[in-house]
Every structure is written in structure tokens, then in C-alpha cells.
Amino acid sequence: GQNIDQPTEMTATEGAIVQINCTYQTSGFNGLFWYQQHAGEAPTFLSYNVLDGLEEKGRFSSFLSRSKGYSYLLLKELQMKDSASYLCAVRRSNSGYALNFGKGTSLLVTP
Amino acid sequence: KAGVTQTPRYLIKTRGQQVTLSCSPISGHRSVSWYQQTPGQGLQFLFEYFSETQRNKGNFPGRFSGRQFSNSRSEMNVSTLELGDSALYLCASSLGAQGVGETQYFGPGTRLLVL
User: Fold this and answer.
1) pLDDT tens for residues A8-21?
2) SS3 assignment, position A27
3) Which of A111, B13, B76, B98 is most buried per CB count within 10 Å?
4) What are the two backbone dihedrals, phi and then psi, of residue A80, each rounded to the nearest 5 degrees?
């Protein structure tokens, strides 16, 4: 089995930077994914890490440390439209495409 | 390319009934996974199908079943519905080659309410 933990809620100000942490415990790690989900909509893919280090994609970056079972999603220059739930998900090497999700972090961006 | 489509989008059933949900993956994608999303438990993996075969299964009772057709479309069925089955059911499709970093793309979901 595996545990995936992330904060339940976060609030940040428009234009600021926010870091959403995710810790996990798993056997046979085969990648960590971040998804964004707006209320009432489907999750959309943001980023993927399988090796240690930082992956940058525009305003969004994701970091992974496999030895620590730790990842974070960094959102820069926050915009109001970034208010959403951010889901951390881990794939195991013997589980095909099955993703195990954390319960998500609800981010509120305020003016 | 059209995205993942799911039908119906909303459904109301009563306890004890059964329900069938449908998912059409992105054209060319051969893997379809199903997830259940509830406020309390978050997103939980149900099962994955590839080439008409169930490749992985989550920890759900046997009342939850699925199948995949030769055109990669998939259906999931829930029999003897319980109140706790009320949830958003999400389908996700992937190419199926299990390449590094291969991504799952989610459909809009079917919201099921069991009364």
C-alpha cells in the first residue's frame, strides 16, 4: 500500500509564489504526477517527475526527491484562475497505469 | 483530436439498482482506467483495461466491474447500488505503451447520485 499526504487547504495572494508539498510512501515507485482540478471539472495534467530534481513548465515547476519520498509543486505569478484543487499522484512499477492520488490541496488565490 | 467522452454526465438511481457508465477514449488510445472521486476519499483507482483485458484492479468490491470493447471504448457497471456509491466516476485514457511519463487524460466524469 501507500500513503500520499498533502495539505488540505492553502491560500495565497495574486502575483505571489506558492509551494504545495506532497509526501509519499510506496514500494516500486514509477513516477509522480501533479494534476489540477477546477470545481466541477476533470483533472488536467500539469507535470511528471520520475528522476530527482526540478521540472519547469512555464509558471509551474515540480520537484522530486525519491530518497525522501517528497515532491512539491511550485506556482509562480499566481493568477485568480489558479484557484483549484491540486492533486499529487504516484504510479507504482507493477501497477500499469493505476495512479494513487492524495486527497488534494485546495488552493485559494485572493486579490 | 476529441478528448475523452463519458456518458451519461449525470445519473440518479435508487439503492439496489444497477448502473452502467460509458467511456470513449481519445482516438488511438488503447488503455482506459476508471476512478471514483468522493469528497471523503478523494480519487480512488477502480480498474484499468487494455486490449479488452483488465490489467489492474483497485480495492473495490465485486459489485464494481468493467469491460472494454475492440474499439477501446469501455463500460463500467455497478450492481446493487448503495448510498455510498454516490460519487463522480472518472474515466482516463492513455496510449497504452506504458512508456516513461505516459500521461492519463481524464474525461468530464459521470456524477452518480444514489437515493
Assistant:
1) 999 999 999 999 99
2) coil
3) B76
4) -60, -35
Determine how β-strand B10-13 pairs with β-strand B110-114.
Answer: parallel
What span, in angstroms and rounded, lies between the C-alpha atoms of A61 and B1?
27
Quick one: cell of A37? 482540478
B111 alpha carbon, distance to own chain's centre: 11
Task: Using DSSP, state whether A62 is helix, strand or coil.
Answer: strand
Mutate to test the interface with A, among B26, B55, B104, B111 (most CBs of A within 10 A): B104
Written as one string, the DSSP assignment of B19-74 is: EEEEEEPPTT--EEEEEEEETTTEEEEEEEEETTEEEEE-S--TTEEEEE-TTS-E
Kindly list the strands in the beta sheet with A3-5, ordered across the sheet, starting from the edge strand earlier in the chain.
A3-5, A18-25, A70-75, A60-65, A53-57
3-state helix, strand, coil in chain B (%, to 5): 5, 50, 45
pLDDT in tens, B50-88: 989 998 899 999 999 999 999 999 999 999 999 999 999
Beta bridge partners of B31: B50, B94
What's the number of CA atoms in the CB half-sphere (13 Å) around residue A32? 32
